[in-house]
Design a protein that fits this description.
The complex is a heterodimer.
Chain A: H1 2-13, H2 19-49, H3 53-64, H4 67-83, H5 93-112, H6 125-129, H7 135-142, H8 145-153, H9 157-168, H10 173-180, H11 184-209
Helix pairs in contact in A: 1-2, 3-4, 3-5, 3-9, 4-5, 5-10, 9-11, 10-11
Chain B: H1 3-14, H2 20-32, H3 34-53, H4 61-74, H5 95-103, H6 107-126, H7 128-151, E1 159-160, H8 164-174, E2 191-199, E3 202-211, E4 214-222, E5 233-236, E6 239-246, E7 249-255, H9 259-272
Antiparallel strand pairs in B: 1-2, 2-3, 3-4, 4-7, 5-6, 6-7
Helix pairs in contact in B: 1-2, 1-3, 2-3, 6-7
The chains are: A mainly alpha, B alpha+beta.
């Protein structure tokens, strides 16, 4: 290790240098060691977290609904994650990172447009939706990427994120619950409501077309 | 199981979150009830639509680079983004890209580079007037390569000290010449340490100085006849090189700071050098 070599050198330097200079050198050395430790931590952080960059970006992109904000969120989230990386001991790096991405997104969403966060979900429509569209019609729409994208973007943030986590990241209810800080039962009911809402949007599009 | 119970469990069934016994009950109901089966098909189509048709936004490559640069800035590792206004660099590439030049270069590009070098050698042997500038280019390439390598983790210095009386004896023992080592912190160029290098077929002393958040590598070796013909300044790949000969030694300063900064550095160095 470089530190060992430096330590050996510090020993050798005593012949040449006065005591004060050796002390100065030792202080400098400690600074260098701290920096080496930081660089080591950074390397470990990048190896653990950079593989989840696409997942982080995808979640931020769906939450923020525009590319520039998504990139800002992801960059900020990685900085925050690095600062608290010493507190990460688990094996689920993706879940840990996505939690931070989500928190960062909400901070910005709250600042930018508070209205976006309020769920304007009408429970009354819930009962009417499920049987009204035929599977054939739904399957037809399933191939329309643009329509699905618009439908997703029309949903409130809490539905966008839960659909992304479940269907794009394919996380379990338990993992989703940990990220969203809600019980597994709530994950299930919120997912059901999100799907219902999405179906309603698609149905309304079908009605408009006809 | 009735239809309402089935409806409540359908999402969990779809997501594979039910225990095997309940799961089987739902399955059985779906087999018996046409209405619920249709609803389930809609649900499946929806789930499929989100996972297949909705766009998955992968991060553009520049996001990764920006993150890596900002993380390095957070721990105080120098990057080109910290450059100030008076740095007139034509290109500012992030550190992550610079690292990649040596390790991640695809083989076909290496082959292309080799072909170009070969062509340059052949051309220079036929055109003697070009030979000197070809040698200059090769030296410049070596100097920049050494500078870039030194900025990679743990390669900056062999002897890390801001004390010229620590660095100089260390280098004197290792080299067959006594290179001048000066601390220029009074002029804004603190000494960071020293390193051994091998350039242009002879060993060289490399002194590392800091300019704000940037590093300057000063390469020193005893002057050879070829050194007297080299140009004073070279700018390549965003790096500036400044060359001068003083006493018995040839100096090359390499950095991403501006040429005027390098000239100040040279002036400061020459003013403090002990007279012969």
């Amino acid at each position: 290790m470089a530190a060992t070599l430096e330590a050996e050198y510090a020993f050798g330097a005593e012949d040449l240098e006065s005591r004060a200079k050796v002390v100065k050198f030792a202080v400098f050395q400690r600074h260098e060691q701290q920096r080496a430790a930081q660089e080591h931590e950074l390397a470990s952080f990048e190896a653990t977290m950079l593989p989840h960059l696409d997942a982080a970006h995808n979640l931020a992109r769906w939450l923020m609904r525009n590319e520039q904000d998504a990139q800002d969120v992801v960059q900020e989230a990685y900085l925050r994650a690095f600062k608290s990386f010493s507190g990460f001991h688990g094996s689920n790096g993706r879940g840990w990172l996505l939690t931070i991405v989500r928190n960062t997104s909400y901070t910005l969403l709250k600042k930018n447009r508070a209205a976006d966060l309020t769920t304007t979900f009408d429970e009354e429509i819930h009962a009417s939706g499920r049987e009204s569209v035929s599977p054939a019609a739904m399957l037809e729409h399933a191939e329309d990427a643009e329509l699905i994208k618009n439908a997703m973007n029309a949903l409130p943030a809490e539905f966008r994120e839960i659909l992304t986590l479940r269907h794009q990241e394919e996380l379990s209810y338990h993992e989703i619950g940990e990220i969203l800080k809600i019980p597994t039962g709530t994950v299930m009911s919120r997912l059901a409501r999100a799907r219902t809402k999405l179906r309603e949007y698609l149905t309304s599009q079908t009605t408009q077309e006809k | 199981m009735n239809c309402q119970e089935n409806k409540n469990l359908m999402d969990a069934y779809l997501d594979g979150e039910l225990d095997p016994v309940t799961s089987q009950k739902v399955e059985q109901h779906l087999g018996d009830c046409r209405k619920c089966e249709q609803a389930y098909e809609v649900e499946t189509a929806m789930a499929h639509a989100i996972s297949q048709a909705a766009p998955y936004y992968k991060a553009p490559p520049e996001v990764r680079e920006r993150i890596q640069v900002s993380l390095r800035e957070a721990i105080g590792v120098p990057t080109n983004r910290g450059a100030t206004e008076d740095d007139s660099l034509p290109v500012r590439r992030p550190r992550a890209v610079r690292r990649g030049v040596f390790f991640d270069m695809p083989w076909n590009r290496l082959a292309l580079a080799a072909a170009i070098v070969l062509a340059a050698i052949v051309a220079s042997s036929f055109l003697p007037r070009l030979r000197q500038s070809g040698a200059d280019q090769l030296l410049a390439t070596q100097l920049i390569a050494s500078h870039v390598r030194s900025l990679m983790a743990d390669h900056l210095t062999d002897v890390a000290s801001s004390d010229q009386h620590t660095v100089k004896p260390w280098l004197d023992v290792k080299l067959d010449f006594a290179a001048p080592v000066l601390d220029l912190s009074a002029d804004g160029f603190p000494l960071v340490g020293g390193r051994l290098d091998y350039l242009d077929n002879h060993s060289a002393a490399a002194l590392v100085y800091q300019r704000r958040k940037h590093f300057i590598n000063l390469f020193i070796w005893p002057t050879t006849p070829a050194d007297t013909k080299a140009r004073e300044t070279v700018t390549r790949e965003g790096y500036n090189l400044l060359h001068w000969i003083e006493g018995d030694f040839t100096y090359w300063a390499v950095s991403d700071v501006s040429v005027s900064d390098l000239q100040n550095f040279k002036r400061s160095f020459e003013q403090q050098i002990p007279p012969h």
